[in-house]
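BUG-450 | component: ligand-complex export | severity: low

The export step for magnesium ion jobs runs without errors, but we want the raw record kept on the ticket for reference. Input record follows.
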Amino acid sequence: MALFGTNGIRGIPNENYYPDFYLHLSITIGNIIKNGKFAVASDGRKTVAVLKGAVLSGLTATGHDVVDLGTLPVSGLQYYCKVNSVPGIMITASHNPPEYNGIKVIGSDGLEASPELQAMIEKQYFEARYNEVGSNASGNQSYASWEHVGSVKYDYSAKDTYIEAVLSKVDVESIREKRLSALVDCSNGATYETAPRLLRELGIRTVALNSTLDSMFPGHNPEPTEENIKSTIEIVKNLGVDFALVHDSDGDRAVFISPEGKYLDGNYTMAIITMSRLKKGDAAVTPANTSDIFINTAKKIGVKVYITKVGPPLVSRKAIEVKARLAGEETGGIIYSEHQYGRDGAMTAALFAEAVAKYGLKSMLRSLPDLYYKRSKVNTTKGFEEIKRLVLEQKHTKADFTDGVKIYLNSTDWVMLRPSGTEPIIRIYVQASSKKMGEALIRKYGELLA
Ligand code: MG
């Protein structure tokens, strides 16, 4: 059984995973990553204490001192880990609904655990034997003797150094001069303090929405899809701000909204940052489901674009390999490597604001390819081999198997299908020359899989 999905271990506490699971998992992690020190942070989910108690116990019992950074975006934890060369554990289920929780393991380089490290943790977790009450044996995990167990210290200053680091990467003065206005929707998650503060430090008149930490996510589902944030889009249309942005619960994603209410996913954000920041000869990394809104914009400038399978850890590792300046996904998880090789919603927000200050959002959007892009999902009992066969039976000009199956219908329209890494569903992505065509494709492939 695999514990790690595309991005961490997630489930419903006391339903899928019990406290002893998180404890044994943390003992395993403490046995494998022998650093002596760990950093821990979380978002504001109801079950944070259940997981954090177990994580602190497992890590200190295996001899690690722990710095508890409190509520912090995962990108802030990753930055702390990178700068201080300590591994970390983030307690969050990212954009999943409130009943979920989970952990992300961060290496001392600030990156999410590699597939190799994840496999090692899973193997040792399942092979380990744990103590029975009254037994003196320590199973096959090692523990620190009582005088060598770790301590827990609290440090709530990580958010200050994190915001300063983000600000240091953009031209703050030129953004301030423009006296922009924005709305930021924190989805009641870990960015509730840092996101409004960052914008205000940039001199942006800021309206903050869903900016209290709330375990029930009363504003909306914390995954910033167009459907989930409809109420925010309506507010933006009537507000007259220069732009709006929405983070997911742990703050590694940011999506944007134009003053007219157009939803701008990661395809747009990457294109906009590319126009403002990238130069000929730079490298960029993105997975196979990304649209030409970004890819064509990058190629036009002379940026070399590398395509990977879908999955944040794969994207960030490829970005390191090719020394990419920018990397990211349509979901809004974007990496700016001068800052760090982890996806960072705050860095994305600052770069977007800088681009708006430099060129104006309207003129940048006008210069982008006019393409419709949509992500959807289908529940199906069909196996992926069968799905692949059905897809390849459809008329197409080219097929690509970088991740799942992708067929091109002509020079602009394509459909890509892949099994989800986190749920038992098939994801469908389409790019089309018109909304009508794109919606027809989503319908057609949904019916094909039913
Ligand atoms: Mg996230």
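Assignee comment: Attached the raw record above. The pocket of magnesium ion is lined by residues 94-95, 248, 250, 252-253 (CB under 6 Å).
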